[in-house]
Amino acid sequence: MNDSHLGNSLFGRDDGDNPAGARPEGEEVPAERHRLPAERPPATRAAARRRAEARAEHDAELAYVDERGGDDDYDDRPARGRRPWIPLLLALALVVGGGFVAVRTLGVGMPSLGFGSSQAGGDYEGEGSGQVDVKVEQGDSGSAIGARLQEAGVVKSGSTFAQVFATNPDASKIQPGTYRLRKEMSSSSALTLMLTPGSRTGQAVTIPEGLWASEIYARLAKATNTPIGDYTEVDPKQLGLPPGANNRVEGYLFPSTYEFDPKTSATDQLKRMVAEFKRQVRPLGIRADNLNRVMTVASIVQGESRAGADGPKVARVVENRLKPGGETAGRLQMDSTVHYAIKKRGTVTTTAQQRETDSPYNTYRNQGLPPGPINNPGVAAIKAAAAPAEGNWLYFVTVNQETGETKFAETKPEHDKNVREFRTWCRDNPGKC
Predict the structure, then answer these.
(1) What is the largest CA-CA distance in the chain?
(2) Among 63, 217, 317, 363, which residue has the fewest nearby CB atoms (within 10 Å)?
């Protein structure tokens, strides 16, 4: 092959009369195109290919310059495939994501966009007008109460009320119940009214620790004007009692302050008390198959002491006396169980005749625990029964009925000495024993 013809085969026709770079007469050479110097023919096919690629690239560059209308040193157009809005989206995602992390991990408040939610902010002014009833449920937080107040039109913003609630140390005194408020009140005015006695519309009743179910019925009936027979006729199966209760309400009507609407039935009243019991006791982790036993011991602790620091020690005495053999022969000999058997209050002691009562709840005559709780204990007594103190005590006696001072003993002689102290106090304080 003649090497002199390689240029013709790769670069097109080579006119001998029109040297490379020459143009027909009258054709104008573009100002932007730079003339290439005369070149020697390539020595090899590879060299010819490279020269062709270089020229094609050069021509493409000139075409781009022609299209722009100039040959500036920078290109002010976005590069092909570039998306100028992507960095903006990335930045926005970082801001939103960072804010979310701050809220979840640091509790940092984010500014609200509003849209009518309870987080919209703002507040009404003044005491408001009109009348509206708002119900506060057990366990409601300031935010939950605020949201309900906003929904009822009492406050403008639930979040603003929650902030006022959080800064008022008396806010925790708000009890469950129905409150009679006004429309369009300032958050501070609404909170003040809720803390004012008489703002609740329902009937409030306080159930102290240690009452029998029959005594609780009497208090509820008086406070709510419900016939006492309605309570005794309630089917325990309708109350949601825990399985360990064996369908007995005694021990499972949790002592607390309750507020009931005027039309609340006896069943619903007791059901709420049982629900409160389960809410209070669930965190203690008592097994269902051990619940009745724990509640029975707790009721004895409640009936025999003022709980507090003595509660776990009384629970230990109960456990120690239940052990077979020994001085007690497995008998508890607790006056509180006899009081329950004869349904008589009034003294901390019992007579010889009362201690002969034929009842499974008489722990002077019967070994072991009674069949079930003898009252409705509070959470302190329940905790004591679930975790008794360590000790070898078999006896105890409250030597001062006013202060509640109680002395524990491991032996009968030591206990007899404490009993003499108790009798001396009773003699010096007639009618208090």
Answers:
(1) 148
(2) 63
**DSSP, res 40:** P
Long-range contacts (CB closer than 8 Å, 24 or more residues apart) made by 305-308: 305/396, 305/398, 305/404, 305/406, 306/404, 307/209, 307/378, 307/380, 307/381, 307/384, 308/380, 308/404
- No. of helices (H) and no. of strands (E), the chain: 14, 6
Contacts 24+ apart (CB under 8 A), 46-51: 48/6, 48/7, 48/10, 48/11, 49/10, 51/10, 51/11
Query: Is the full-model pTM beyond 0.90?
Result: no
The candidate with the shortest Cα–Cα distance to 210, out of 36, 380, 38, is: 380
Comparing CA positions, the residue from 322, 302, 307 lying closest to residue 373 is 302
Strands (E), 79-176: 129-136
Q: Quick check: helix, strand or coil at residue 64?
A: helix
C-alpha to C-alpha distances, 114 to 120, 190, 334, 347, 379, nearest whole angstrom: 4, 22, 64, 64, 43
For residue 301, how far is the Cα from the chain centroid?
A: 31
Q: For residue 357, what are the CA distances in angstroms to 115, 200, 342, 352, 425? A: 71, 46, 8, 9, 28
297 near 315, Cβ under 8 Å? yes
Contact predicate 250/373, CB 8 Å: yes
Q: Are 210 and 303 in contact (CB under 8 A)?
A: yes
Whole-number Å distance between alpha carbons of 13 and 123 = 88
